[in-house]
From TrEMBL:
It holds the Pfam family Abhydrolase_6. Residues 3-210 form the AB hydrolase-1 domain. It comes from Amycolatopsis oliviviridis. This is AB hydrolase-1 domain-containing protein. Gene3D superfamilies: alpha/beta hydrolase. It comes from the Bacteria.
Length: 217
């Protein structure tokens, strides 16, 4: 099985290193794509950019946090067999609202306006608070801002007909767990899987994330 791993808005692809290593040890392929480009792209441009970095067929595409905006387009570009949303924004497919329109409902109020790449203490508090010291060090090294305008402004079309798994960390301090649970039900028609973790369970609970990915692929 192939897994294409899509970094979020505050980490480089290195954030997926531990999960990728576990997936490969279990006999799978794991490709962490890098969405950062010299210039901002439209959603379709980022989907093609991911496509250019993958040479396989019918992967499971996994996205974290704000790149949930891009997950449907990337999954369709790669002819994905499934999508997995890890502590991720799920677009408003039927209502047409953008992430920007839903900021107050979606994010913890203390997080709005924070740039964790400029404030390691805030990164530890909101993103990596459940990590052990070694993991926290690795996580802080992975910090990198990815915030093209399209993430906030994009209005999704119809939901793709691709099976979805939603992973909700119950101790997330960044995105509201209750919002993610409801969005999974209302927008994707699935019941979220819950994990006892903060916003970056791929860092703090990599074995559990790898197990969920392989078990639900």
């Amino acid at each position: 099985m192939d897994f294409v791993l899509v970094h979020g808005t505050t980490q480089s692809p290195a954030g997926w290193d531990r999960v990728a290593k576990l997936l490969r040890a279990a006999g799978h392929r794991a490709i962490a794509v890098d969405l950062l480009t010299p210039a901002d792209l439209p959603v379709e441009g980022y989907a093609q950019h991911a496509r250019d970095q993958y040479d396989g067929e019918r992967p499971v595409v996994v996205a974290h946090s704000g790149t949930g905006v891009l997950l449907p387009a990337i999954a369709e570009a790669l002819d994905a067999r499934a999508m997995t949303w890890v502590a991720a924004y799920i677009p408003d497919f039927s209502g047409g609202r953008s992430l920007r329109d839903e900021v107050v409902e979606l994010f913890a109020p203390e997080w709005i306006g924070v740039d964790p790449t400029a404030d390691p203490a805030k990164a530890s508090e909101f993103l990596f608070h459940d990590c052990d010291p070694e993991t926290e060090h690795l996580a802080l090294d992975s910090l990198r801002l990815f915030s093209p305008a399209v993430l906030a402004a994009h209005r999704a079309g119809p939901a793709p007909e691709i099976p979805s798994t939603v992973i909700v960390p119950t101790r997330d301090r960044t995105l509201k767990p209750e919002w993610m649970r409801q969005a999974a039900r209302d927008r994707l028609g699935v019941t979220a899987l819950e994990i006892d973790a903060g916003h970056c369970p791929h860092m703090s609970r990599p074995a559990e994330i790898a197990g969920i990915l392989t078990g639900h692929a």
